[in-house]
């Protein structure tokens, strides 16, 4: 009985370590957080791998991300006060925050698809 419990414990440890190591832990080189002041501005962020899809969502993962235009190979996605512009499969993103006239802190999340995983970037504006 004791040997069986030990075997199950070892099996659970092995499976747990495999599941933990499945995804990337470095966010593909992208920053995990970008902060803007109330004036808003444009900033360039970059990572190690190119992105092929972006959603801009709230804390609950909900958001209407709309492609508001695209030049030859440049894509622009916007949601509320935040826009992201990038070239398909490029690792450089231009993030633009509109001025914050609400007087309240606001947050959105950029979720960029890289190699079938998400690079998550929290965007905060004061």
Number of helical runs? Answer: 1
Q: Tell me about the largest β-sheet.
A: 5 strands, antiparallel
3D shape: globular
Query: What is the end-to-end distance?
Result: 59 Å
* Mean pLDDT value: 84
Q: Could you name the key traits of this structure?
A:
126 residues, alpha+beta, 9 strands
Describe the structure.
This protein has 126 residues and is of the alpha+beta class. The protein is built from 1 helix and 9 strands; from the N terminus they run αβββββββββ. The protein has a 5-stranded antiparallel β-sheet with strand order 2-7-6-5-4, with no helix packed on it. The protein has a 4-stranded mixed β-sheet with strand order 1-9-8-3, with no helix packed on it. Strand 4 (66-70) and strand 5 (74-79) form a beta hairpin. The radius of gyration is 19 Å and the shape is globular. Residues 15-21 have low confidence and may be disordered.
Summarize the structure.
This protein is α+β, with helices and mostly antiparallel strands and 126 residues long. It has 1 helix and 9 strands. It is globular.
């Amino acid at each position: 009985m004791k040997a069986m419990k030990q075997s199950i414990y070892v099996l659970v440890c092995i499976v747990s370590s495999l599941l933990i190591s499945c995804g990337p832990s470095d966010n593909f080189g992208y920053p995990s957080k970008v902060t803007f002041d109330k004036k808003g501005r444009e900033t360039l962020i970059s990572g190690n791998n190119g992105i092929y899809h972006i959603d801009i969502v709230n804390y609950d993962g909900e958001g209407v991300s709309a492609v508001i235009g695209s030049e030859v190979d440049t894509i622009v996605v916007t949601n509320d006060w935040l826009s992201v512009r990038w070239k398909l499969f490029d690792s450089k993103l231009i993030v633009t925050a509109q001025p914050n006239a609400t007087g309240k802190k606001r947050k959105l999340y950029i979720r960029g698809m890289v190699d079938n995983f998400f690079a998550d970037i929290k965007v905060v504006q004061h």
